Amino acid sequence: MNISNDNPSVDYVDYFTKQFPQDLAKMAALKDELAVRQGALSAAQDAIADREKAKTELADAQAQAADIIASAQAKQADADKLKADLDIREKVISQRETAFEATSQARNAALKTAENAVSQRENSVSDREDALADLAAKLANDRAALEARIKAFQDKVSSF
User: Fold this and answer.
1) What is the mean pLDDT of residues 56-67?
2) 87 lies in a domain?
């Protein structure tokens, strides 16, 4: 508002014919530049929003990764404990197996010794049975010879 009227009055015809087209061209250029800047500003705002979204996604991914790592470490600890238990069981079984083999070898040795003793006794019994059979046959022959002698003596005594 110009109250004092210090400025000369504007000649609107001169303005619309000479200055207005230049101002209009400048305003069109400024509008294009403003659109470009607004696009750049929108792109920057979109980039900032994308960065924030990426930060939250990164935080979520890191949290998930931490959960997965914790779960994997827990499973690894369980697996290590199970492996230690299985190693102990394997040692116990190995010791039992060694003890069983030693006991088995001792039993087998004792069994062979007993089998040899039984075999020797069987051979001894067989030899004694053969000797007894021979003695029984000799006894039968001797008895038959004695009975024949007794009969001959009785016949001789009865003839007198």
Assistant:
1) 96
2) yes
The structure's pTM equals: 0.43
Q: Where in the sequence is the domain holding 40, given as residue range(s)?
A: 12-154
Distances from the Cα of 73 to the Cαs of 59, 62, 70, 126, in angstroms? Answer: 21, 16, 5, 76
| String of DSSP letters for 33-92 | HHHHHHHHHHHHHHHHHHHHHHHHHHHHHHHHHHHHHHHHHHHHHHHHHHHHHHHHHHHH
Q: Which residue has the tokens 């070898």?
A: 105
Place of tokens 């069983």: 100
How many structural domains comprise the chain? 1
15-58 pLDDT, tens digit per residue, is 778 888 888 888 888 888 888 888 788 888 889 999 999 999 99
The torsion of the CA quartet 28, 32, 34, 40, rounded to 10 degrees, works out to 180
Evaluate whether residue 39 is within a structural domain: yes
